[in-house]
Design brief:
The protein is mainly beta and about 200 residues long. Helices cover about 10% and strands about 45% of the residues.
Length: about 200
């Protein structure tokens, strides 16, 4: 289990999520950070069995969207949803699924050429907001937002964002801050931190 957890974390620690008009990827080289070698084993077992997410709902934002798996692009970065699917979110399928121990990572565009996209209001959520993730196994995992943070894309603290395997968690990631254009798009990443509080059959 330890090796799988380290691999999953290593694969998401490839940089920052850049998203904007015609942009959307996690950029940066793939390398396993030295601090991962000291990561404790995650607790035995999982809160929920692995199962891919199919839908995300944030009632406080009026958000209800499909979720589809994404992997890595040819550069070793997390592949963002296609701009043709900017109204959907992408789950990083080589990491934990929502409800397992560790941070399940779901990414989405803030906008596209036609205007607001799936995560355009993500930065406005408050602590305590509930997020529901429907899964293929017909379980619905309910998470509660514990923090909303923005990071400069050049200074994303990888361990802080991706390193907690002590509980089932969720990270929603999109872009924020000012538009700077070029390959960078927006200047910041918005990261929603949430933890599992309940699960039910759908």
């Amino acid at each position: 289990m330890r090796g799988r957890a380290l691999l999953a974390v290593g694969l998401v620690l490839v940089g920052v999520f850049s998203i904007g008009l015609a942009l959307g990827q996690v950029t940066g080289p793939f390398r396993l950070p030295a601090w991962l070698s000291g990561l404790d084993d995650p607790p035995p077992g999982d809160a929920l069995e692995p199962s891919r997410p199919t839908r995300i709902e944030i009632p406080a934002l009026g958000l209800r969207a499909r979720v589809h798996p994404v992997g890595l692009d040819p550069d070793g970065a997390i592949a963002a949803p296609s701009m043709r699917r900017a109204d959907e979110a992408g789950w990083y399928e080589d990491g934990p699924s929502p409800g397992q121990f560790g941070p399940a990572v779901i990414v989405g565009h803030v906008d596209d050429r036609d205007g607001p996209a799936v995560f355009h209001r993500l930065a406005t959520v408050d602590r305590g907001t509930r997020i529901e993730i429907a899964r293929r196994d017909r379980q619905v995992a309910t998470f509660q937002v514990t923090d909303v943070r923005s990071y400069d894309k050049a200074a994303l603290p990888a361990r802080e964002v991706y390193g907690d395997f002590s509980r089932p968690g969720l990270r929603l990631i999109t872009c924020g801050g000012r538009w700077v254009g070029g390959a960078e798009g927006y200047a910041e990443n918005v990261v929603i931190f949430a933890t599992l509080i309940a699960a039910r059959s759908d």
